[in-house]
């Protein structure tokens, strides 16, 4: 049966995209150009360093590697200030309930996030103890759609990838889970995440029975 569930963070457990947006927008404005919500959408699941490269490209600005390092650090300091004020009310609907029921059912849980701040966020919203393993951006070298982050999650839990279900809101993340040989639940629109084995609007639509049905399909 199902041995483990591995969760993406931003867009699945919490919505940190709003804080990333504010911090990137402040940086872009300081550099003299605008940054839109539509552009922010394209950064979901994308690493900090890669996000900055994309933003500088959109602004038509070139910076040395050293300057990019400084800019990424500056953005992260603003971002970290904001996430330190996060509260349990910011957990997305159904996430806490699902994590609780997985634990009660003896199904292991891991986080598989591109964020280097994942541990702080889980701690601030009060659900860090509900994860048996946390794999974050500090522990991976290849970004999604590479399956590394999810394979490391399975390894940390001591379970086979084929016995894992991944929850993802980004296309690259859905592809990463599939590339790792896992079942994938997409959180969002069917039209966008059609490569997933199942697409739902949010974790409130998921329970142990849905997961068992999914696991036993195909
Ligand atoms: C998250 C966000 C991305 C962000 C990345 C790195 O990914 O979706 O927008 O750029 O983490 O975050 P940090 O700057 O905190 O290392 P995920 O994988 O949790 O969806
Ligand atoms: Mg995400």
UniProtKB/TrEMBL annotation:
Provenance organism: Chitinophaga ginsengisoli
Site residues, Important for catalytic activity and assists the phosphoryl transfer reaction to Asp8 by balancing charge and orienting the reacting groups: 113, 144
Positions of the catalytic residues: 8 (proton donor/acceptor), 10 (proton donor/acceptor)
Broad class of enzyme this protein falls into: isomerase
Residues that hold substrate according to the record: 8-10, 24, 43-48, 51, 75, 113-117, 144
Cofactor: how bound: Binds 2 magnesium ions per subunit.
Enzyme Commission number(s) of this protein: 5.4.2.6
Catalysed reactions, semicolon-separated: beta-D-glucose 1-phosphate = beta-D-glucose 6-phosphate
Alphabetical UniProt keywords: Carbohydrate metabolism, Isomerase, Magnesium, Metal-binding, Phosphoprotein
Pfam families: Hydrolase
Protein family per UniProt: Belongs to the HAD-like hydrolase superfamily. CbbY/CbbZ/Gph/YieH family.
Coiled-coil features, chain-numbered ranges: none
GO BP term, example: carbohydrate metabolic process
Signal peptide residues on this chain, from the entry's feature table: none
Taxonomy, superkingdom: Bacteria
UniProt name for this protein: Beta-phosphoglucomutase
Residues given in the record as Mg(2+) binding sites: 8, 10, 168-169
GO molecular function, one term: beta-phosphoglucomutase activity
Cofactors required: Mg(2+)
């Amino acid at each position: 049966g199902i041995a483990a569930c591995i969760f993406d963070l931003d867009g699945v457990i919490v919505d940190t995209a709003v804080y990333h947006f504010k911090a990137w927008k402040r940086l872009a404005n300081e550099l003299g150009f605008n940054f839109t919500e539509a552009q922010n959408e394209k950064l979901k699941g994308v690493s900090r360093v890669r996000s900055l490269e994309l933003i500088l490209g959109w602004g038509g600005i070139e910076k040395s590697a050293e300057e990019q390092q400084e800019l990424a650090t500056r953005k992260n300091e603003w971002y970290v200030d904001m996430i330190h004020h996060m509260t349990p009310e910011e957990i997305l609907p159904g996430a806490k309930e699902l994590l609780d029921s997985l634990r009660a059912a003896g199904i292991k849980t891991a986080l598989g996030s591109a964020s280097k701040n994942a541990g702080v966020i889980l701690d601030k919203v009060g659900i860090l103890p509900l994860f048996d393993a946390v794999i974050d951006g500090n522990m991976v070298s290849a970004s999604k759609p590479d399956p590394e982050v999810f394979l490391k999650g399975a390894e940390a839990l001591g379970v086979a990838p084929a016995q894992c279900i991944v929850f993802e809101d980004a296309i690259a993340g859905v592809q990463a889970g599939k590339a790792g040989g896992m079942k994938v639940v997409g959180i969002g629109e069917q039209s966008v995440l059609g490569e997933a084995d199942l697409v739902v609007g949010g974790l409130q639509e998921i329970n142990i029975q849905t997961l068992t049905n999914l696991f036993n399909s195909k």
